[in-house]
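=== RUN LOG ===
request id: a7f3
mode: sequence -> structure
chains: 1
length: 498
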Amino acid sequence: MSNLSSIATRIQTTVLFLVSAVFASEAEKPNVLLLLVDDLKPTLGCYGDEVAVSPNIDRLAEMGTRFELAYCNQAVCMASRYNLLLGSRSTSTGFYSFGTEFREVYPDAVTLPQHFRNNGYVAHSMGKVFHIGHGNTNDNASWSVPHLRDKVIEYLVPESNHRQLTREEALFTNEFSRPIRSLPRGAAWESPDVLDEAYADGRIATHAVDRLREFAADPDQPFFLAVGFVRPHLPFSAPKKYWDMYDRDKLPMPEFEDPPEGAPAYAGKRGGEINAFKPVPTGNGIYEDDLKRDLIHGYYASVSYMDNQLGRVLDEVEKLSLDENTIIVLWGDHGWHLGDHGTWTKHTNYEQANRIPIIVYAPGVTKAGSSSRQIAETVDLYTTLSSLAGLPEPKGPQPIDGVDLTPALADPNVKVDEYAYHAYDKRGYFGRAIRTERYRMVEWTTTEGALEYELYDYKEDPLERKNHADSKPKVLKGMIELLAQEPPAKKQVSRPGR
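=== RESULT ===
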């Protein structure tokens, strides 16, 4: 690790000098366009998915660098967005679950957009950026103007919710006047023949285009623009034309639907969030093939709908010639299980819940159409964007956990870190995970304080069919040693008075 860090430091110094030279020769600082997508796994053409219709994200990948091995720090919406916007892992802050506002713990925290504001930028946001709902709200101090929010849970078809407040709508609007379970379930999908702007992502794209035009009119003022798209988050509400892009009967079905052999029973997930939607059965989590196909169809259709809205934003960037001096980042907040291990949605320490797309385009730094197998984490983006923009190194006061990926952007063959570190707190069972290029090890602390381990070999067993902790003791020992390099994880923090 020390040799790797030393080499990376020398490379980083050289790259930072070159990056500074690039932007020092220009009158203005580079702008930043941060594209956040909810529940997006790498079901994208540029990541090798042969079914996905994602031409616009694929186009962004052709412009810059795609990280093949990118991971969230926790497969939970709220926590993952705190990881991004604070630059802090959940294990450093204790933010694992909904309901805790970060400023109640770190009142003087400097968020990613704040860091840019403090260095002469205007910072605007729209759509789903911070997680708003489940007891959490937006952070007003992060933005130069009020955040523009829109719906996450949205229905146009009367039968989808019978014009009643549903469970998920209540959660995402912080409406807790009635017990959540007393409310009806909404539909898991709908596909009306409507215009794109009938749903939130279409409206958010339009607002982003308008904001870009305003920014282009004042080229001396650098901007940080965060645009958050909500699809493919449930419900899969997307216009019919995107459903029509796919042959339902030819969509990929889950290859392995059992728990890994030898894995602790608590490590998996059945039910959960998806039970809030009809017609999903709320029993043992086993679904008929027709339902699986409908859910998978809805996920892909939602990806394509979102991709088209994102494409409208990219089109405007190019039309306004902002691509010449704008860093563009695509980030998915976490992955999504599509029936693998019999699991749907997220909330595990497995590959499908934690692997995410990260694509970076940085004029003068990234090479067009490049890909890197450098391990990348969500928290790395705070540090990396600061470096690319020539800003001072972020100092917090919250923990800053990320590494600077700029050397890997300048040369995709460069390695600056050995592993990703993520975690999941599962109501009494706490799992910390190390993911290297080949392996993942999860160390679970049980309710009794005992340690249990999972080990997966993605070269021999990419579907996680078997826990290899017992059969590969030397590998397990090495992974435990990597985990020991990290500080102890903080416990879940609670709001004062709770």
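=== NOTES ===
Confidence is low (pLDDT under 50) at residues 5-11, 13-27.
The radius of gyration is 22 Å.
=== END ===
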